[in-house]
Amino acid sequence: MSYIKQIEPEQAAGKLRQLYDEILQRRGGIANLYKLLSLDTDLAQANRDMYWASMLTDKGLSGLEREVVAVAVAVSNECDYCLRHHLGALREAGGSEDLVERLTAGEEPEDQPERVVRLVYYARKLTLLPGAVGKQDIEDLREVGLKDLEIMQSAQIIGYYNYANRLANGLGVEIEAECSESGI
Fold first, then answer.
1. Which letter, b or e, does each residue of 62-83 get, where b requires 16 or more Cβ atoms within 10 Å of its Cβ?
2. pLDDT digits (tens, 9 = 90+) for 38-81
3. Quick one: 104 and 158 in the same domain?
4. In this structure, which of 96, 129, 156, 183 has its CB flanked by the most CB atoms within 10 Å?
C-alpha cells in the first residue's frame, strides 16, 4: 500500500470514519492518498478540503483546464499515481486522446485553445522552475483570456498537485486496483 502505516476504512473510527464516509458518498471510493494521511485526521481533512475546493468547483477554470494542469504537473514530477487518477478525469472532462498522448509525452498540446497551451506551460514552469516565474508569465496568461481568479486558481492547483505528487512519490502510495485510469 505505502511505505508507512495507514488506516483502512474498515478499521477507521471517530472523525476518520466520518471523513471516509463523506469521501465515499461524494466520490464513490477512497483514494490511497487519503489513506496515506489517515494517521492525522486533521491533515487528511485539510487535504480533502483543499482538493474539493480546487478541483470540484464551478468557479474559474473549466474542468478540462483543471485536469490539464493536474496532468501537466504529474508528468513533470513523474508521479504515476496522480497521473493515472487524472488521465481518466481529463478524458471525462472532454480531453481528446491526442491531448492525453501529448501531455503524457511532455509535448506541447497542439491544436488546443491557446488558454490550454499557456496553462500547460505555466504548470510546467511553476513546477520545475518556480524561481523563474515572473510577472511576464502572468501577463502571458492574461493575454490568452485568463482572469485573475483563474490565474490564482491555476497556481493553487499547481501548488496542490506538487504537494500531492510529493506525498505519493515520497511515501510510496500505490494506485488503487479499481482506479484503472478512471479516477476516484
1. ebbbbbbbbbbbbbbbebbbbb
2. 999 999 999 999 999 999 999 999 999 999 999 999 999 999 99
3. yes
4. 183
Instruction: Report how far residue 33's alpha carbon sits from residue 11's, in angstroms, rounded to the nearest whole number.
Output: 16
> What distance in Å separates the CA atoms of residue 96 and residue 149, rounded to the nearest whole number?
26
Question: Is position 178 within any domain?
Answer: no
DSSP string, 105-132: TT---TTS-HHHHHHHHHHHHHHH-GGG
Residue 134 belongs to what domain range? 63-170
Q: Residue 125 burial by CB count (10 A; 0-12/13-18/19+): exposed, middle or buried?
A: middle
Assess contact for 23 and 30: CB atoms under 8 A.
yes
Q: Is residue 19 part of a domain?
A: yes
pTM of the complete model: 0.93
Whether the CB-CB separation of 175 and 81 falls below 8 Å is answered with: yes
